[in-house]
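Exercise (ungraded).
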Amino acid sequence: MRSFGAATRMPTLAVVLSLIRERGAVSRVELAGATGFTQATMTRAVRKLEDLDLVHEVGTVPSNQGKPRRLVGIKADARYMIGLQFDAYSGTGVVVDLAGGVVAQRDLIAPGLRPPETVIAELAEAVRLLLKDAAVPRDRVLGVGLATYGPQDRKAGVLLTPQPTPDWQGHPLAVSLSKATGIPVAVENDATAAGIGIQTLSGAASSFVVVYMCGGIGAGLILDGQPYRGVTSNGLELGHISVDALGPQCTCGNRGCLDTAAGPTAVMEQALADPLLAGRIESGAGPLAAILSIGRAALDGDAAAADLIDASAQKLAIATVTLVNLFDIGRVVLAGRAFADLGPTYRDTLQAILDQAVFMRHVHATRVELAPDVTQAAAIGAATVVLRNLLESPDAP
Amino acid sequence: MRSFGAATRMPTLAVVLSLIRERGAVSRVELAGATGFTQATMTRAVRKLEDLDLVHEVGTVPSNQGKPRRLVGIKADARYMIGLQFDAYSGTGVVVDLAGGVVAQRDLIAPGLRPPETVIAELAEAVRLLLKDAAVPRDRVLGVGLATYGPQDRKAGVLLTPQPTPDWQGHPLAVSLSKATGIPVAVENDATAAGIGIQTLSGAASSFVVVYMCGGIGAGLILDGQPYRGVTSNGLELGHISVDALGPQCTCGNRGCLDTAAGPTAVMEQALADPLLAGRIESGAGPLAAILSIGRAALDGDAAAADLIDASAQKLAIATVTLVNLFDIGRVVLAGRAFADLGPTYRDTLQAILDQAVFMRHVHATRVELAPDVTQAAAIGAATVVLRNLLESPDAP
C-alpha cells in the first residue's frame, strides 16, 4: 500500500509561493509571520524560489531597525506552464504565467476514436500554437500538464484504461508527448486538475469537492489546498458509484452507475429514443455535444428536454449527497464543459436536494457553486500541477 | 471551514510511542534511524514520553562507541485507558494498558430509550466495575474514550442528533460522564474508533476503510494510521448514502438510504413481515438482536433467513464499491457487533462483488477482511483515542 502522507500537507515552497502571489510584494519578515515558519526557513525558501527564477526583489520598505526591508514578488513572466485537458469528445489548452494568469487559450481537436499517436501529434501542434499565441519562447516553459480521465498511473504518465479505444491502454502518454514537444509532461486526473485550477482561479487554499462533468462524470477532493489521491491517484470515481443497487449492469462491472443513469451518454441515449427530441441532436454528435444541445433546448423552453436534464440533475444530486455524507465537507464546486450552459440549472437542483438530504445539514451547511471558469478549470489546474510538482520535488527543500 | 491539516500526519510522540511498542526494547539511535527524525528530536521525544510516565529504561546494550546504549520500552502497566462503545441496542467496555493489551472487558447495559442521565450513571458504574475487574486504581487511568454514533461535536463531547431520543441532542455527554467518574472523557465516532482499534490490535499504521455495523451502518477511513475527519468530524455516514435514487424517503431526508435498505432495522422489518421468520426474533428485540437471530437462522440452514442476509450483504457490497471507487483504497475491514456471527458471510459477499465491480480492480486489488475483534474494536479504539489525544495535545512537542 502506498503512503498517503506526502500529499496531505502543502510543502513549504508551495505555501511560500502562494503567499507571495497573494500578497503581491512582501517582506521575508511578513512571510515568516504569516506562515509560522522560522526566519531561517523563510530565508532558505525565498532563496530557493529565486534560484528557480520564480520570484525576485521588487522593492524595499523602511524598517524600524534602520536597514530597509527588501520585498519579494512573483516574477510573473519568467516562466510559464501549459495545461491541456481532453477526453474523447473535447479538449482545451491554456498557457498560464507564474501569477496564475491565462495568457493564451485554444480549443483542441477532440480526439474521438483516433489512435494515441495521431492525437499526441495534434496535442504537440496545439502546444506549438499556444506558445505562438502567447508569444512565449519554449525555454521559458516549465512543463505541460495533461488532464484526462482515469484510471491512470500518474507518476508514469500512462493511462490504465482501454478508453476511448484499446490502443490507449498502457500507452506512454507523458513520454510520447514530451518527445513530441521537447517539454516535460505531467499527467493528472481531470476532476482533480479542475480542483487545483479552481484554487488557482480563486486564490487561497481551501477544502471542497469538485463534481466534474465533461464527456462523463468524475469528482475530485481538495483538502486544505492539497488533492486527495487515494492509493493509486484514482480517487473519486463518482461516475461509477451506484445510484440503483438493482440497476442495469455497467461496462465497469458495477450496477446502476451514475454515469450510465445520469451522465451525458445517458442523456443522449434518452433523447435519441424520443422522436421529438432526437432532432435536437446533430447527427454523429458525441455525448458532450448532445447534452449541451439538449441543455440549450431545455433553456429555450422545451419541456421534454427540461425533464431529461432535471432527471439527470436529480440523480447527480443524490450522488453528491453521497459525496458530502462520506467526506463530511461543506463546499461543492461544479466544473467541466458539460456545465457551460447548464451550470446554474444543475447548481440549483443540487443545492435544493443537498439542503434537504445531507445528513450533517443541521451541523453545517453545504454550499454548491460553479467554478470561476467551468470550461477551463481543469486545463488551468493541469498547468498549475507542473509548478506544484516542481515545488514538491525532493530537490526542493 | 475548519482545517483538515492537523489530522493528516501522525504527530512525533505518537510515532515514537508506536515504534517503541512495536519493537519492545529499543535504543534512541535505532528509533532515530527507523523514523528519520534527528537524534535531538528523538531525545526530546523520549524524554517527554518518560515525563508522561509512558516509557522507561529497560536495559542497555554494548555499543561500538564504548558507552553502552540505553534501551527504552513501554511501561505497560503505568497507565491505563478505558474504552466504552454504545448505541441504543448494545454496549461494551474495555480497560487497555499502554502496550495495547485488553486487561478487562464487560458488556454494558444497552441504553435503549432511557434518558442520558440514567445511561451516564450506568456508564459510570460500568467504569467502576471495569477498574475493579482490572484491579487498576483510578489515578492510573488517563481517560475514558466513548465511541458512539454521530453526528457529534467531538471536541465538545456532545451528540448532535436526537437519537435514540430527543433528550440526547446537545446533552453534554463528555462533561457529564467525566463528572460522574472523576476521569476525563473524550468522544469519538464509533466507526472511526473501530478503525483506530483495528490498528491497536494489528500493529503498524496503514490505510483502510472500516465498514461498521452494529445497531446501524457506518464507516470510517484511516489514512497512514490517522483518521480522516472531514470538516465536523462526521465523515463517512455510509448508512445514509443512497443505494436507490428513487427509493423510499428516509427520516434523514435522503432517499433509498443503505441503512433503510440493508441495515439491521431493514433486516428486522423484513423478517417480521414474514410469518415463518418472525418467530425467529424474540419479542421486543432491537435491530441488532434481530439481525443476529436471523443470521444464526441463516447459518443453521434456514433458506428464507439466508436470502434476507444475502440481500443485505449485496446492498452493503454495492455501497462498499462506492467507498472504494471514491476513496481509491485497497483494504476494507469489517467491524461491529452485527458481524459477530455473520462476519465471514458478509466478508465473502463483499469480496465477490468488489472483485467484479470496483472500477480500479485492474489497477489494484481490494481485500475485504474481518477486524481482529469485531465486537471490541470500537471500544479498544476509543481507549486508544485517549492516549492519542494526549500525544497530539498542543502541550506535547
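Further reading is listed at the end of the chapter. For now, observe: The radius of gyration of chain A is 22 Å. Chain A touches chain B through 60 residues (CB under 8 Å).
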